[in-house]
Fold each of these.
Amino acid sequence: MKRVITATVNNISGVLNRVTGMLARRNYNIESITVGHTENPTISRMTFVVVVDNQRSVEQVIKQLNKQIDVLKVSDITDESIMSRELVLIKVFSCPQQRAEIAAVINPFRATIIDVGKESITVQVTGDQQKVEALIDLLHPYGIKELARTGITAVKRGHKATNSDERVVLIN
Amino acid sequence: MSTKLRKKQTAVSTEKQMMKGSTMLIEALKQEEVEVIFGYPGGAILPTFDEIYQDGIRHILARHEQGAIHAAEGYARVSKKPGVVVVTSGPGATNVVTGIADAMMDSLPLVVFSGQVATSVIGTDAFQESDVMGITMPITKHNYQVRDVNDLPRIIKEAFHIATTGRPGPVLIDLPKDVSLETGIFDYSKEVHLPGYQPTIMPNKLQIRKLVEAVSSAKKPVILAGAGVLHAGGSEELIEYAEQQQIPIASTLLGLGAFPGDHELFLGMAGMHGTYAANMAIYESDLLISIGSRFDDRVTGNLEKFAPNAKVAHIDIDPAEIGKNIETQIPIVSDAMEALKELIKQNGVKGQNSLWNEDLKQLKQEYPLWYKEEPDVIKPQQLVERIYEKTNGEAIVTTDVGQHQMWTAQFFKFKKPNRFVTSGGLGTMGFGFPAAIGAQLAEPKTPVIAFMGDAGFQMTLQELSLVQEMKLPIKLVIVNNASLGMVRQWQQLFFEERYSNSLFPVQPDFVKLAEAYDIKGIRVDDVAQLDSAVDTMLAHDGPVLIDFRVADKENVYPMVAPGKGLHEMIGVKPE
């Protein structure tokens, strides 16, 4: 299962290395990771998407992250009410005649064309993973020349909606 | 405590002085009341060694950095103080990597200073440069590279704090040469502020109550005591609690000594070469209480067959250990001593386990650890047993890794905490001898016996120089079976007796080797001389090395073969 985990960490050199090194040597599979500093420049926020087999593994990831001295707070926000977004740049093969067609395809996704070349156009789309995947699927038939994804970043909603799903509960 | 407070107060006078980085380092060590440091000089750490020269702080010059760090580990294990190591950059630092990894696995508090090339050339493959931060990141509790001399006092203070609190472990400080020569403000009075590091010391009351209830309703409870009890200094509490609740105790290798080996509730060591009683107790228990152990694979055997009927309670200061290998019903994140104190205070209703205790007592009598004496050869177990008897089990014992380590764990019944120094988690050959040096320095008046295999001893024997130089009265016992005994045993049992690279038909003359270092050397190959040789060794006022030629094909039994459950032991009785 996929879990979205966020961590606030000290914004000092080497922290990303500590965190990814730990995840790699403990055999966790990271699908994506995004890092950037927060409203407080001494603190960074990391968002991981990890693929784990079971609840116990999630607990281990969180505990091992917490063990790092430079990690301040870790949360599994998968089951929370969250907003998660990813930005993707897609360079699609396109002759001039196809441009209008592609523009029409991407329009409902609120994606934009940010560059036009002789043989290709570059589309930028922002959204949650499902939306992004759907657009990539639609653009596939035209031929994707290059694809760059940021990986998702996420925050909890300001207003808490109730959620009855099972949550990861940490001891103590 | 009062002396500590006084020293901290005198610190105020030196507060906020301007000084060089290297001076700060020594000043900080004084503030931390470090009595002895272990190390080896070299280019990048020269400024610090110059300071050591001028200041006169006690420095133990090992003959190899690995010797220095294992000695620091032995010192830390016995004294319960942090071991401090100072080495140079590049090869100096990489030579302590094994020791750092060893200390990490066995949770020993170390503060390691490694020199580094000047900040201006970091990243240019300068002479004796290596990425020590990168190399040691996964094997330290935390590590630092000092980029600004003004950060040095804070970093050293944090390093000692991190190394010695919570679950102890090694912390490394990488110190570039130019930083140690720069001048900055030395202020050691600030409190450590680490928002990301707040170990939980006190147990959750609700979980304690759950455990008390579980004990009350248990019919087959057993405690598995690990090194966490020793780190917490909770041996007395463990004895009190076990006696109060009448719960039998099994121990991990590293937990030996936390509970008296001759106590009637003691079942022995659990795991691969543990006692039949301890392993069966865990297998059949309905309540398994782990205190400061981490369910290592050498303790559990096959996880699927581990304690199948037991409710598991796990007391550990490191929350990440709880539920890591074994599913836990009652998790208690806490210092072992604090949890035990709370459990004793609760004084819950005793479980209905008198029948169980009787059964286990019988099992213990029926299946004792065994070996067969032979008239013409010394059995290694016999050797360990003799030394145990003749020292009344009072000595500090260090071991290397392998068969002799297991025999020592089996036949030396440790009565007191912190008398057993061994490399458990990492299984580092070459550990036992230098660790004995550190142990002897921690307790100069207590006899120290180093049990070593003939192979392991040859990995760090250069430290004989230190023994010679300091006249340390260590008793070096080579359990010489002219082979890598444990490797040979596995090849015999699981590789159809193909003894690939595990036999040593050619060996040095260990007696002459000892004599070359001005150390008394004796060779014993006759079982009739065993007793007198042990007497001579113990009576000798100074270092002595004895090359005990023991039975070369002896195996360690009983044994849980790899992949088997604890109840599937082989060799539980003489054939």
Amino acid sequence: MHNFEFVKPSTIAEAVKALAREDAQALSGGQTLMPTMKQRLAAPAVLVSLTGIPEMRGVCRNGDALEIGAATTHAEVAREAAAAYPALAGLAGGIGDPAVRNLGTIGGSLANNDPAACYPAAVLGSGATVVTSKREIAADDFFQGLFSTALEEGEIIISVRFPIPERAGYAKFEQPASRFALTGAFVAKYASGVRVAITGAGQDGVFRWSDGERALSASYAADALSGLSVSPDGLMADLHGTPAYRANLVKVMTQRAVRAS
Amino acid sequence: MPKDHGIGASMKRREDVRFLTGRGQYTDDVSLHGQTHAVMVRSTVAHGRIRSIDTSAAAAMPGVLAVFTGEDFKDMGGNPAGWLINSRDGTPMREPKRPVLAHGKVRHVGDAYAAVVAETYAQARDAAEQLAADTEIEELPAIVDMAAAVADSSNRVHDEIPDNLCFDWGWIEDNRAKVDEVFKSAPHVTTLELVNNRLIPNAMEPRASIGEYFPGTGDYRLTTTSQNPHLHRLLIAAFVMGIPENKLTVVAPDVGGGFGSKIYHYGEEAVVLAAAKKLGRPVRWTAERSESFISDAHGRDHVTKIELACEKDGTFLAFRTATLANVGAYLSNFSTATPTFLHGTLMAGPYKVPNIYVNVKTVFTNTVPVDAYRGAGRPEATFSLERIIDKMCRELNLDPFEVRRKNFITPDMFPYTTPVGLAYDTGNYGATLDKAMEIGDVAGFEKRRAESAKKGRLRGMGLSTWIEACGIAPSHLVGVLGSRVGLYDAATVRVNATGNISVMTGAHSHGQSHETVFAQIVAEKLGVPESAVEIVHGDTSKIPFGMGSYGSRSLAVCGVAVTKAIDKIVAKGKKIAAHMLEAAEEDISFADGKFSVAGTDKAKTFGEIAFSAYVPHNYPLETLEPGLEETAFYDPANFTFPAGAYICEVEVDPETGKVDICSFACADDFGNIMNPMVVDGQVHGGVGQGIGQALLENTSYDENGQLLTGSYMDYAMPRASDVPFYTVDYSCQTPCTHNPLGVKGCGEAGAIGSPPAVVNAVIDALHRGGLTHVKHIDMPVSPSRVWSAING
């Protein structure tokens, strides 16, 4: 790891200012950034910690929505969202291991947009809103491909606002080595219809499975998906699974998410 | 009442107190005044010709003290192969030089071609990156696939070896024609092609070395992660650096696991010693985890075609195998023994099979060198045998339990010489099979299968009946087989004047519990408490010349050396006691820590005898030397032959292909047991590693020789949730007939016996679920492979 300067602002304004410095990089839980820096694959000059800003922390219910501060850890979400949004809490409680969950944050995960991360599935599957230091971004507009988001240079995620669904469930099949989602499906049922988001499988990261959404909107039951087949086109191929295998998992995990909801 | 101490007691491990409280002292914990830091510069291409290395910029960087390249070491000796194998045509194997640092060519990703030494680690790392940028390597086509390597003579790992072949070995060549005849006329022949997957050892502690040079005396000291410090000293002194052996001390302090990978001498050890001499300061190097992946010797990596000829009732007539074994880019120290004499000689298993022929072609490729890894050759043999026997049983619709039983060598047949050259001394394979069926509750399987089916899971049961040759020795035999070293071991028992005891062993404990178990043996034999016994290992300046720990040999070889040294202590103690008690030596008996005169109440305690030996005021000095210290070297008459039966039950999720292990029953015959708790741990760990190989661990190179599984993000290690609670039994004991402890060794058993039990269970689950088109799935039997096999 190369040397760097470390700053820990206590307000969003200070954080935005610090991030404007040359080679500055936002640091939340550091679960991706720190290993990358240790391997010298990243060498920012300034690390701006976002974990000391009070309005970026905590879980808060506002009517039909659950708002989660971007610097809230997975462990905190697992604990504090359990009553209002158990599927989301369950997802958070299944990320990594206890060490990861006590440091990693929802904002860090979303800003990184790892194609196998769990949170993007919850955010897209819930049709959540990403609140940043500049604006509000709808989930459908936020995720823009592998490790790529709508965030602009210096823009910070402040919180994420989840509309609370009638029912929701998450099921992931773990990649055997990393235990990230080889394929994970998040299903959420709203009055307006059912949303299904798939992580781990897509070449471009998280995506909505529209055939599945239509079928479940018509009939919210795992069997409603039985007749569907998922095209392997556009799905990832790696050591751990072919596109055809992942296509199978899209359906199987969605069915399991429905059953778990 | 079970014993609470001495031989056979489940004493808690004394070493755990320091390991579990963070007080272990590993190589990287050693901090020396004036120390400097080395970083290796490693090839990022699998195969390339080094065109130029400009060291000037790196050498001028802050804190940099020295830069080394292959050029600096080109006149040193090569890292030798410890085992000479001859090809079928009688020609000796090809032995390309393995230099300290790559010179001329780089031959695998991770091949170190330069090293930088600086005041701090960060400075050395910065300069290493600069040096890499200032190096020009012309990339050559990578040789990765073994079959292609031997077929294409235009592309060579070593320019002087046209077909990339190290040797083409036949075992036993004289049997070949007969075996071929049997196959021609056999009532049934089963054929199976399989891969024994390459494994990366992943010891918890990465390799590390610290070199020191003492200019006042010209002495060197190497502190390093070694399973066998004297072997390291011999290799470095006599073969690589040309240092007199008595001017080099090798210290292996606490070592955090080896599994074979720390048997071998690696170039970094010579680099830190040479650098220490040049700089006059200690030089340290510790591998990063990513370096371990690309520089520790890997294991396994066989591609095998095996055939079984049998009667229609399953009676074995012959086995015939053809194997391509990967040695990687260079010969590691024992890499030529692993696919041959630790593999071919085990192809009889525990079975009376009259005809066997084994062919192994060992191939150079642009991959990390491959050498012995827990089990070493014997897991490969066992996997081939136990998989094809299961396949044959399916083809002929025979019971896999009864077919194995029918073919077992029976207790009345020992000693039994196999057609592949081993003489098994004792065993009772039917007994361990019965025990495994009992503790594995074979009778209750159908009920459990029905329960699984209700959940949509396919349940299967897999069997493996295995044997190994371990207690690696004896010298006379391994010498005939090509070993260039002896394989005895040694121990010194020093009774101190105050009566406590120091035992110096050639065996090295890097997880094996020697400090506890050897102390139990000494305590039992001398009638003293374990707390009075200290086990000293890992420092060539303190211990006798022993060969270290691997091949499940510590107890069966070095443990016996300890008992032989104790026998000498007791014999001398009797002479001293006879003098002190004014009795004839032959009237003195020793028991429970007392030397007594037979038929009287006259006695001296062990402590009194020890004191007298060091304060010899009343002592037979004219006929007996003072002091009480004895050394014994022990070279066994034969290998030991542990054996057992393993039964694994799995559930397969047919929707995802995921395999869950429900239960694992192990019935082993390890001969006599010194500490049951330690044996439990060895079996648990070995089976865990075997499950890792069977289900998870996949070493994958792409066609350019890039390691795709170079971190834990892609290389799947078994975790606690991947393994079941094991059922372990070792009550079926046929003590080894040729060592006085009657012990056989248990360190590798689990890793040898378990992989085929797992794979057999998966195939069984699929067949019982009606998926009979799946004949075999290569390891690791990952979810995607299972799903593809089901849907293929």
Amino acid sequence: MKKLKLSTVLLALAAPLAAAVVSIIISSVAVLASKKSPFDAYKTMWDFGTTSGSLMQVLNTATPYYIAAVAIAITFRAGLFNIGVEGQLRLGAIFGAYFGAKFILPPVLHVIAIMVIAMTIGGLWAAIAGYLKVKRGVSEVISTIMLNSLAGGLSSYLLANYFVDRTTDSNNMSTKTLPKSGQFPNLMPLLNKFGVADQPGGGVYGMLVFAIALGFVFWFVINRTRFGFELRASGSNPIAARFSGVNSRRMTFVAMALSGAVAGLAGLPAVLGDTHAFNMGFRTGIGFSAIAVALLGRNNPVGMGLSALLFGFLEVSSRSLELIDIAPETYVIMQGSILLSSVIAYEVVRRYKITLQSKELAKAVVA
Amino acid sequence: MSVAVELRHISKRFPGVIANKDVSMSVETGTVHALVGENGAGKSTVMKILYGMQRPDSGEILVNGTAVHFKNPNDAIDASIGMVHQHFMLADNFTVLENVILGSEPKHGITIDFAAARKKVVEMAAQYGLDIDPDVLVEELGVGQRQRVEILKVLYRGARILIFDEPTAVLVPQEVDDLFNALKGLRAQGMAIIFISHKLDEVLRVADDVTVVRAGSTVAEVKSKDVTARQLAELMVGSELPQPTTHGDTRRPEITLALKDVSIPTKSGSRDLISKVTFNLHAGEVVGIAGVEGNGQAELVEAIMGLREYTGVIEFSGQDMNHLSVAHRRDLGIGLIPEDRQRQAMMMESPLWENRILGHQRGKPVMNGFVLDKKTTIVDTKAIMEEFDVRAPGPQTLAAALSGGNQQKFIVGREMSKAPSLLVASHPTRGVDVGAQGAIWEELRRAREKGMAIVLISADLEELIGMSDRLLVMLRGAITAELDPAKTTPEQLGSAMTGAA
């Protein structure tokens, strides 16, 4: 039994290790192609990335990635693919920021209210795709991509024409700043107590804590509740799910809407914790990077956490590459090669596992 | 006649288990020799040893009277042994000719001598009656023809002893006939053919001799003309065959299921998929639905389960179910064994304990309120596996790793575990071995005695006649006859099914 455990552990580690080795080779080739030493590049990234200022930025980058990745994982588990997280989080953020600045509530309630607005908007936006899929058979991949374009245009239009705060005359169009009660407290004061010194760049978003809690809730709901089971069943075998009494159309709709609701929150860490408003500098691309984060993390809450941190680290630390004259965008190649090699490695290991089990079974049956 | 290949007292152990123990058989040239046994009896291990894929721990193999020691399949091929695998190993984008010579191409300097290859392949095909166009792409071929290419491949490499591993599993009846003709042709040319199968009627049709394997050992070698399918089956199981029978009348007065004029119209307005089906089913009664497949049985099941829109009324214990969802119907106490277990009843890449939940996710024992009770589920899964003899390492095993028969036993066990008052069973014993078949029948009998009402759909006429209290014949969506199974022979039922009676 102990031997078996060891082999299981080795098997679990095989895929990520193989993927890491392959992606390091690919990335090194990319650096070599620009006639620079990969070792210098990695060392520079590491030295820069592990300063405490950088690490805080890594956390801040990873937090929205993680929330968005959870949103995508919900649909992956249901056998769907929500590519529209980018649009959902954008709309969630702008509506949350705009309406959140319109009223005053006690501190915690105010933040919750903004979150609810963002979730509702994100959920409704994704529900359009869910509705089209269930009623009209439109592929959610296509419709969410199109909804992304619409969301991008819609949010710019709303910001420029209706939501912009005309009391300030900055060039950066922005919604009205959220009142203090609608801001998510920063973790910096807490970190100070543990002896971490302030760093330029704004500390650590409080929504980090929320993201971690969200990961746990995601795990519990998906793996330990009836709803989660039915969602996974319709993902892994929709026909059998239907024969088992799961209303698979409703499940498709609900999974899309729920995913959108979670996605609606992914733009909030910066809005509630840093800018305190939605402005033109709102980060783009979170929803797309999050697809990679979810894939790399295999829809697993811990795995997605690690991959969100990895992506955040690569993104932040690669800024230092400019210092040694390498294009910082090299991190995109790194992220891509990590994703590709890990997807392949996991598939290889998965097939090997099935073969292994069949063999074990053959022995057990003959016995 | 001479002996082409002989196995003497072959034994093979895997760590902890004995796969083969004292296996002996001898195959004469110019004969078809069948190797039969239940799933997991050790047929495949025997063949892997003979084909050099595994080495025996003890015993010897003689080919044409000489002892041989194969280290790998190449040695076996050199000794003129060839294997036609159940799953074809062909390159789709190659022609038949290219596939046949792949790996042993005749060379002309450094180029392939296609002319010589073609000549040889065409000659061979003609000689053995394996009619096929050498220049067509394999992707354009049907299953039967692909198999022919596999056979040609083996012959091309000079095989005189041919092993066929479950060759009919993938074929339709017409293709089976073609294959058997080809086998007879090969036999006439002095080949020795080893035919692995568990379909006994086919074995008796094509084989001259039959060797029976049970629990890793050969238990009998008989001439096929001296035995019946039933005797062979009994040799395979090692005891008297289970009979699909029920005892006495366990029918209770209360009506569990009532159908009144149930129809499923098509949107196009053509003939209804099922039309005005009406019957009552009492508690403790088994009603058998007979019919050639595709005459509305599947649709009837879907209507009863609420998987399809229908007109008319379906009542369960006096309650109108028309507007109830699948989930509600299951909650009321209806169990379902669907006809296509992998597609309709399992999550193949999930462990068995999760499959235990499927269809039962709305209550005890797998759920505690809305929260999944993993511990209890695993314990319960183990219990089902023990009671229904599901052979797998444990509840964590993936469903995909189980053989079809074990999957079926698991599904039957899962559906019975809730003791439903109505069980809809579509082909409950299809594809399971004889032992499991008996066990499933026994479960159905016991449940019937306890008052379960059963709708039984089956293509096995003996099963239908033996297990049912009443037979309804479905033809083109309508019930065309009601028969008393006690007074019906399979032949009579068969002709009623085709509308000939």
Amino acid sequence: MIIDAQGVYYKKVNELIHQAVDGGAKYLELVNVKGQRYIGTGLPEGVELVIKGVPGNDLACFMNGARINVLGNAQDAVGNTMNQGKVVIHGVAGDIVGYAMRGGKLFVKGDVGYRAGIHMKAFHDRFPVVAIGGGAQDYLGEYMAGGVLVVFNLNDLTSPVGSFTGTGMHGGMIYVRGKVEDYQVGAEVGFAPLSLEEWSFVEKLYQEFTKDLGLKERPLKKQEFTKLYPKSARPYGNLYAY
Amino acid sequence: MLKRHKKLIPDFKDISGCGISGVMSEAGERFSGEFIIRSIANMHDRGNGLGGGIAAYGVYPQMRDHYAVHLMLDDIKSKKETESIISNWCTVFGDESIPTKPHPKIQTRPILHRYFVDIKPEVLNRFNTDDEDEAMVDMVMRINQNVTGGFVFSSGRNMGVFKGVGYPEDIGEFFRLDEYEGYSWTAHNRFPTNTTGWWGGAHPFSLLDWTVVHNGEISSYGINKRYLANFGYKCTLQTDTEVVAYLFDLLVRRHDLPLETACLAMAPPFWSQVDRMDKKRHKLISGLRMVYGGALLNGPFAVLVGFSGGMVGFNDRTKLRPMVAARKGDMLYIASEEGAIHEICDGPETVWHATAGVPVIGRLKDPKRILGEKGAARLEAMTKMMPVVDSQPSQGGLPASEGGLS
């Protein structure tokens, strides 16, 4: 089923999607999307959505198992509080990618803006994963509480992340391919090489990433990656208790 | 100050939104206002109908060497009072009601009138200057501060601000902007957070040919306001954005800083970043921070500044508001959301998200052709001087160059 979003208000676009899904549609194609917000909100497992154009803010927010393929760039707050499912963006994304994400996977082929992975969190079997093909700007993984952020840096930038990476981080892991200087991370962040278990996770994720995005796989090396981990699960627990 | 049209909507405070959009032909080709209306309307939900406005450059080519003074007026009495000031200060070459059309969503409006003027030679003598701009700034400040029911909302040459209480697409239609042609346009969709939605409080804010549309909050407003007061700028609009327009006027027109350097003074790198710079840049940025401490803009913001020579988009230092830019041929697009660009541009050649504190700048390629000999000379006098400073500190992250993201 194809929905033409040209000039259609976001509420209507979302109504059409949910009506189709309620009516049993499993595959939907949205064309001429130009900034309509909240696309994919709450969509359940078993639904696949292909978006041609630029979906608006809060793409896939609260999404609950569906799969979204964006054949273009995305705006801000992709995967806001997403619960389950997968979003694959064949372009770049704006700020706060994976904002408070609680589960599922989010792949971005190119670069992401500021504050990617802000306050991601994990709980029991929910484990959010954000993979970035390019680089990230400042405040990557800010207040991160769980899940995994991977920066593959496939354009081989000298500095794939900005400043203040992991500021306030108290859970989860960030794996970055390329150089990260001490001054680029928050006070709560430690550096370490990847364990074998972690490396096998990253390798498998990379295979899935290249397959989903139709990229040619190239050999990545474990030693190219740096692990950024939270030094404490409760860095400011004693702040007001002297 | 406008009195009667000030309190249309009760005071309230709500979460922040606001949308901005700008489109410019660097070749100076003029195009209809309908494009900027479509672009800002794409981000309808970033505002709430309590303010919308558009700045248009190149719209008065027949009058390009005269100031176009746009006024909002409460009544005939305030109009007479304002007119007497204008005719004291200026030679008036023409005046008319600003054309509007009845619009179902614009229910109440002030009197809207425009004057095409030059500053009288005897006024310049009185000021002991040959700088008409200085006199014009003084006249605008005087009217806005002293005249009850009168308010100048635009005072540049060959440009105009059109704004009011409503959604920007409705305000654009109300002012019949599809019938104008300009080479550069900016627009604002307001979601007032700290002050009321009143006609004068809508963006763009303007002084001479500077216009500012702004998404965010200038938390340093108090400091900036007091700093500007030293130079004769009086903040009368009850809103933070006003200071950005005056700071550009002060730093670029009066202090001759290049645009990049002015942006660097307003959104400088953090001291921790300055500490890592080489000696030369360390000295320069420290100097700028010390001399222009009062011009530092704090808080979350994305602003679009228009002037006769082009358009500048820039963000606060930690990028707390969105800004995305695109190019196609000679066209430059800057907006809060990428969708607003695609709305009016089929297949942009490059799209990139702005880097915190690093301006995106569009410039007229041949100012003489567009602005005339005099206009080009004025622009040159304003933007020459100091060498341009490389504003990107080495701090890691993605390259700031255009097309850094595509």
